[in-house]
Amino acid sequence: MRSMMSERREENMYRVVLVDDEELELTGIQRLVPWKELHMEVKAACPDGFSALQYLEENEVDVLVSDIRMPIMSGLELASKAQRLHPNLKILFISGYEDFQYAKQALSMKASGYVLKPINDDELLGALQSVRSTLDGENRQQQREHSIQQSMVYLKNELLERCLEGTPDRDAVIELMAQFRLGVQVGSLRAAIIEIEEKDWRTESQHSEAAQAELLVALTSLCSRNGLEMYCRQSSRRLAVVMEESHDTAMLERMMEELSASHNATLTIGLGQAVEELERLHLSYEEATKALSMKMFQGKGKIIAYSTTKEEARESVLNIETTVDALFAAMTQYELVRIVDCMEDLFQQVKNIKNPSAVRNYSFFVISRLDGYLNSLNESLFSITGQNGFALDKLFEFETIDDIHSWLRRKIFELSEQLHNKRQRKNVKLIGQIQNYIDQRLGESISLKEVAQAFSFSPNYLGHLFKEETGELFSDYLMRKRMELAKRLLADTGKKVYEVADRVGSGTLAHFGKQFKDYTGMTPGEYRKHL
Q1: Residue 457 main-chain phi, psi, to 5 deg
Q2: Whether 456 contacts 492, CB under 8 Å
Q3: What is the topology classification, in CATH, of domain 441-530?
Q4: What is the pLDDT of residue 75?
Q5: Do residues 90 and 135 touch, judged by C-beta distance below 8 A?
Q6: Burial of 19 (0-12, 13-18, 19+ CB in 10 A)
Q7: Are 470 and 477 in contact (CB under 8 A)?
Q8: Distances in Å between the alpha carbon of 419 and those of 324, 333, 371?
Q9: CA distances in angstroms from 199 to 185, 264, 267, listed in the order given
Q10: Residue 118: is the preceding peptide bond cis (ω within 30°)?
Q11: Which helix (H) or strand (E) holds 90?
């Protein structure tokens, strides 16, 4: 209903249904009332109560203007049924009978107005203006309530986030949470971080922003239905949740299963240890963060509970993230020696992993990160290596980190070379297009800025790229091509020197003479004599 009200406010038009068994009266009201000025629109003009009721059953309506006395179904009967369908419907009765009983019944139904026939235009207009004022007021109230609700959501999110992070003003935050009834502690508490996983990179598709937003809404709805009212959004894919003593991991498992069934989404949950006071909740939150980071070794789609024995491994995780970023940068820049160094560093940090399952999970983590990195470059493992380019089934054959080290290093080398070759081919084609563009305009006054604009690059970048690919500065290339053209033109003795100067874009004859001598060591005249 809220979205419908928002749409109505944007349109600023209220929807009206007219009902009268007298055709002239019905047509007259529809045509003579300045509906647009009232910010109203007649959606239906019905000759009887039955057709009006049918329309009301199928459509949203704001105002019902109805004759009271009609055959078979009176206006009062229609209004009674209509109010059950639309509790906020405003009703304006019209009647040719000055009957107190009708007026009394109309008032008991909380009708917004009662206009007698023959209709006085000013009286009807005044009644409709009163209805509109009431609707406007209700809409403003709804907007205020919605704003308050949104503010409370933001407040709850902010307060809970600050409480979890253990800010210096945590005591004041906890007091505010209690004041606004944002969470009442029952027994011990523990923090959980729920992360919506991206779809498996091997499917060559990821969740769009809209899909991620929908998943997060579904996740918060799941939390509320399961009594997890203390939660705050941390990102488009992550929710921090406070669990009370009555909440157990079985409930989290059910939530994971339900979201998987309804949205084909996978959750990974990091779970901190229980604490007895709200003041210590930030410690549980820190543990949940550490537990979630261990999905590199534990795998996705699981509940990973914090354990002090995993502290040393978690420190490796932080270093691994940095090393992986450096590895990908080296791969992109085709720095093979640096790739070797990064790989050695990377696998030295996890040398103590002996569990085959952890080795595979670690491998999947690195490859998933690799695909995400390539996506940021508008590339993908599918487009570069093909669906079977990484032969992931082979991962299940590995039992040690040395095996995965050797295999992955070879694959990174292959991928780096393919990226390098692809970039070279792409740049060669681009430089060829730029050179052709220049060659066709040698007689014009062209500049690096103009060419960069034509190819949608910055002048600095294009100048750097041109020098990197050709080994020649843009200005040197332009001069060389112009002087080579000048030499060919000077070979035609029928052409005047000033004509050649004009053809190569040198401007004045004196300027051309200087350029030509600087380039060849001879004046244009001397050059002709040596032909």
Answers
A1: -125, 165
A2: no
A3: Arc Repressor Mutant, subunit A (1.10.10)
A4: 86
A5: yes
A6: buried
A7: yes
A8: 18, 9, 13
A9: 36, 9, 11
A10: yes
A11: strand 90-95
> Residue 229: CB partners within 8 Å, gap ≥ 6?
183, 223
Token pair for 123: 């009286």
Rounded distance between C-alpha atoms, residue 242 and residue 224, angstroms: 12
| Rounded Cα gap, residues 53 and 76, in angstroms | 12
Q: How many residues does the chain have?
A: 531
Adjacent-strand bridge partners of 439? none
Classified by CATH at the fold level, domain 187-305 comes out as: Alpha-Beta Plaits (3.30.70)
Structure tokens at 448: 């690096």
3-state SS class at 230 = coil
| Separation of alpha carbons 501 and 508, rounded Å | 7
On whether the pTM is more than 0.70, the answer is no
- Phi/psi at 400 (5° precision): -130, 165
Closest by CA to 353, choosing from 312, 319, 393, 303, is: 312
Report which secondary-structure segment, H or E, holds 137: helix 121-165
Number of H-type helices and E-type strands within the chain: 22, 10
Q: Which CATH superfamily is domain 14-139 in?
A: Response regulator (3.40.50.2300)
99's CB contacts (< 8 A; 6+ apart) are: none
Question: Three-state SS for 305?
Answer: strand
Tokens of 356: 């085959």
Element (H, E) at 46: strand 40-46
CA atoms of 428 and 422, how far apart (whole Å): 10
Tokens standing for residue 305: 């509970």
**Residues 367/200, Cβ–Cβ less than 8 Å:** no
The H-assigned helical ranges of 301-355 are: 311-332, 336-349
Would you state the structure tokens that stand for residue 322, as one six-digit string? 């940095």
Nearest to 117 by CA among 93, 136, 144: 93
Cα 517 from Cα 237, distance rounded (Å): 67
SS3 267: strand
Unique residue bearing structure tokens 């930030």: 282
Q: Are strands 189-196 and 238-244 parallel, antiparallel or unpaired?
A: antiparallel
The whole-angstrom separation of Cα 145 and Cα 333 is 55
Give me the average pLDDT of each 10-residue run along the chain (531 residues): 39 86 88 90 93 93 90 87 90 72 62 77 88 89 74 65 67 61 64 80 54 85 85 83 86 91 88 84 87 74 76 56 83 87 78 62 75 70 56 61 75 83 73 88 87 86 82 88 88 82 82 86 83 68
Give the tokens for residue 156.
């709850």
